[in-house]
Write a structure and sequence with these properties.
11 strands, 384 residues, four-stranded mixed sheet, Alkaline Phosphatase, subunit A, 12 helices, Non-specific phospholipase c3, 2 domains, alpha/beta, three-stranded parallel sheet
Length: 384
């Protein structure tokens, strides 16, 4: 058991990352925002807070978290953003992103990403979501166990090569990171001093966590023609003596690069920014055009049962498409649902919400509102 727990990947097993690290940059002091699980850390990436959440709270996730995000800050300053999703967008766990005004910011990855790259039409700020479900014909590419890591490698390769061929390549900084660590061991101590609570909201009892320490380190790769080959980014030089690179460094750096007015919380005001990695005076012309092809890591059966994360995504979509009003919601909805059924449910339900929101927008609805679909009548009705 100990050998399995302490095991890792050889560089040749993840050739895409091996090439990117040697050609661009890796950060060896990037920490998850809190010593906890997936969703709270994901919330920090775009909002620099989890509003007191340290667990995957299904009820709050499907209702949508209320805090302001970096997407809204960009929009207020006149900058564009785009979220490229593959089945359904987990960024809609932020309630504000469900508003009618943002509905056109969601774009289906397979249909739009490569063409937008080719035409030089990528927004100022882009988030690319993975395929979180796994089937034989359509494997998961999100690196969540037990999904084949080679699929994640192929996905990063696809994204990089599309960006590299884009006329916007010389304006691009690509960040590849992970929300949390999947374990508790690290030879580098977790920062426990000088870390500010984002908004002075403590976790509820019995946890009472004060959000005054970071989590374990996670991988973070940075790719741009403005980065020297083989760069290793260590800890930041500020803005405070105790500052570190963590997930809130993303909105902090976005604020700095785009000269936005305000920080989201005290945490991104404290977090180190990584704009300093762009050290060149001119973009490189020797960046690889293509990356190595990864080999399949292992043969395995596709997922049969939904993971907790997948159940949360299904339940969130049920909130969008109106099934939340049925008596099977939320637990019975996913109780016996297979992975293929979940994929179809999420694809159809998410598209239904996007289409209804788009129709509301065309009909002149208040764009600050959220479309509410209800299925408790013979025909759906739309409430604003």
């Amino acid at each position: 058991m100990s050998e399995t727990v302490m095991n890792g990947f050889r560089p040749e097993s993840i050739p895409v990352y091996k090439e990117l690290v040697s050609e661009f940059a890796v950060c060896d002091r990037w920490f998850s925002s809190i010593p906890s699980m997936t969703q709270p850390n994901r919330l920090f990436i775009h909002s620099a807070t989890s509003t007191g959440e340290i667990i995957n709270d299904t009820k709050k996730l499907i209702e949508g978290y209320p805090q302001k995000t970096i997407f809204e800050s960009l929009d207020e300053a006149g900058f564009s953003f785009g979220i490229y999703y593959q089945i359904a967008a987990t960024t809609m766990f932020y309630r504000n992103l469900r508003k009618i005004k943002y509905i056109r910011n969601f774009r289906q990855f397979d249909q739009n990403f490569e063409s937008d790259c080719k035409r030089g039409k990528l927004p100022n700020y882009v988030v690319i979501e993975q395929r979180y479900f796994d089937t034989i014909l359509l494997p998961g590419n999100d690196d969540h166990p037990p999904h084949d890591v080679s699929e994640g490698q192929s996905f990063v390769k696809q994204v990089y090569e599309a960006l590299r061929a884009s006329p916007q390549w010389n304006e691009t900084l690509l960040i590849v990171t992970y929300d949390e660590h999947g374990g508790f061991y690290d030879h580098v101590p977790t920062p426990t001093s000088g870390v500010p609570s984002p908004d002075d909201i403590a976790a509820p009892a019995p946890y009472n966590f004060q959000f005054d320490r970071l989590g374990v380190r996670v991988p973070c790769l940075m790719i741009s023609p403005w980065i020297e080959r083989g760069t290793v980014l260590h800890g930041p030089s500020g803005p405070y003596p105790s500052s570190e690179f963590e997930h809130s460094s993303i909105p902090a750096t976005v604020k700095k690069i785009f000269n936005l007015n305000q920080f989201l919380t005290k945490r991104d005001a404290w977090a180190g920014t990584f704009d300093t990695i762009l050290t060149r005076t001119s973009p490189r012309t020797d960046c690889p055009v293509t990356l190595p092809d990864p080999e399949k890591m292992h043969e395995r059966e596709a997922d049969e049962k939904l993971t907790e994360f997948q159940q949360e995504l299904v339940q969130m979509v049920a909130t969008l498409n109106g099934d939340c009003y049925k008596d099977i919601y939320p637990d019975k909805l996913v109780e016996n649902m297979s992975v293929p059924e979940a994929i179809k449910y999420c694809e159809d339900g998410f598209q239904k919400f996007l289409t209804s929101s788009e129709n509301a927008k065309k009909n002149g609805a208040d764009e600050s509102e959220i479309v509410v679909l209800t299925n408790n009548t013979p025909t759906d009705r739309v409430e604003i």
